[in-house]
Specification:
Blueprint (H helix, E strand, L loop, with lengths): L13 E6 L3 H10 L5 E7 L3 H11 L3 E3 L2 H5 L6 E4 L6 H10 L3 E5 L6 H14 L3 E4 L6 H11 L6 E9 L19 H17 L4 E8 L5 E9 L5 E7 L8 E5 L2 E5 L8 E6 L4 E5 L11 H12 L10 H18 L9
Parallel strand pairs: 1-2, 1-4, 2-3, 4-5, 5-6, 7-10
Antiparallel strand pairs: 7-11, 8-9, 9-10, 11-12, 12-13, 13-14
């Protein structure tokens, strides 16, 4: 991780340009815009009408009707890429080329090759780059990592995590559309997969099974990740039903059972081998939103310290996650992703 000079005044509020005007983009605008160390300086869309509409609704000073207009805006320090999945790599690369720091909504890209290209471009440009996997930065996830680092439950043996949402079958909906990067694994399964990586790192082997939706994208996918030493992670995701959305980490000396919904601000129970328990509950969040602020605060923290990557979610790990997504897609026979190398 090298020093970056793309933002010379590291004490000033970080000025964000938001690429995209959908639901997650507007949630980010509302929550991050309320922070003392952040400012939403600009928003960009494919159409002038939509960019202007969102800018007016949120009091954003600059609206751009193109990717180029947003990333070239001199009032923007960092770009949050919140476009449909197939456009993530294009948006990230354009921001990097313009010398801007970048936070890319999950999934980081459509493929491991795209992720690697973005990571290499950011390193060459000396700008900050991170995947917007907000769960990593939530208070309960921070506490879980601390307990695991302290050996609170001993060597990890299993991780089990699921994420399912029930959507009415609709070929026009983005989650069912191959052209828009649909499918359970990319949109929902990325959460349990990232959780498994957070706990155990990259697996040595992956075995996946799936059933398709009517459009050919995966509707329900499960995978077993194997690790040196015998640990397993089991992840499941589906578009067809709302699941428990729990995460359980078990070691030789205890278990951490995260409440539903594990990928949002949540609590957990630590049960030790002797039966004693410890309870963690996320403190109430002040201000708007449900926790997108923490990833934005991590970006600001890293920039203040002159870092181009977050040690909590470095780019090498994001690339490895996308490589596993590629392997799962290969095993389940998903067609090649749009715009993929």
């Amino acid at each position: 991780m090298t020093d970056t000079s793309a933002r010379p005044d590291r004490t000033a509020p970080l000025r964000w340009g938001v690429l995209g005007t959908g639901g997650i983009a507007q949630k980010f605008i509302t929550e991050v815009g309320a922070l003392d160390d952040a400012q939403i300086a600009a928003v960009g869309s494919r159409t002038a009408h939509r960019a202007t509409e969102v800018a007016a609704a949120h009091g954003i000073p600059h609206a751009h009707a193109s990717l180029t207009g947003l990333v070239d805006d001199p009032m923007v320090d960092a770009v949050y890429v919140a476009t449909p999945h197939p456009a993530h790599a294009e948006g990230a690369l354009a921001a990097i080329e313009a010398g801007k720091h970048v936070l890319v909504e999950k999934p980081f890209t459509m493929t491991g090759a795209q992720a690697r290209a973005v990571a290499e471009a950011a390193a060459a440009a000396g700008v900050f780059c991170m995947e917007a996997m907000w769960t990593r930065f939530l208070p309960h996830a921070v506490r879980v990592r601390g307990l695991l680092a302290d050996g609170a439950i001993g060597p990890i043996r299993t991780v089990i995590a699921d994420h399912g949402q029930g959507f009415a079958p609709d070929p026009a909906h983005r989650l069912f559309s191959p052209e828009l990067g649909g499918g359970a694994m990319l949109d929902l399964g990325i959460y349990p997969l990232s959780w498994a990586f957070m706990v155990l790192g990259a697996p040595s082997a992956v075995t996946a099974v799936s059933d398709p939706a009517m459009t050919g994208v995966d509707a329900t996918t499960s995978a077993v990740l194997q690790y040196p030493g015998g640990a397993h992670a089991v992840i499941t995701t589906t578009l067809t039903a709302r699941t428990a959305c729990r995460a359980v980490v078990t070691g030789t000396e205890g278990t951490i059972d995260v409440d539903p919904v594990f990928y949002m601000p949540s609590g957990f129970t630590l049960t030790r081998r002797d039966g004693t328990t410890e309870r963690f509950t996320t403190p109430p969040l002040s201000g708007p939103g449900k926790g997108l602020r923490f990833q934005a605060q991590e970006v600001a923290r890293c920039l203040r310290e002159g870092l181009t990557q977050s040690p909590i979610l470095p780019l090498a790990e994001t690339v490895a996650i996308m490589d596993v997504v590629d392997e799962i897609h290969r095993q389940i026979g998903r067609p090649p992703a749009p715009n993929s190398p």
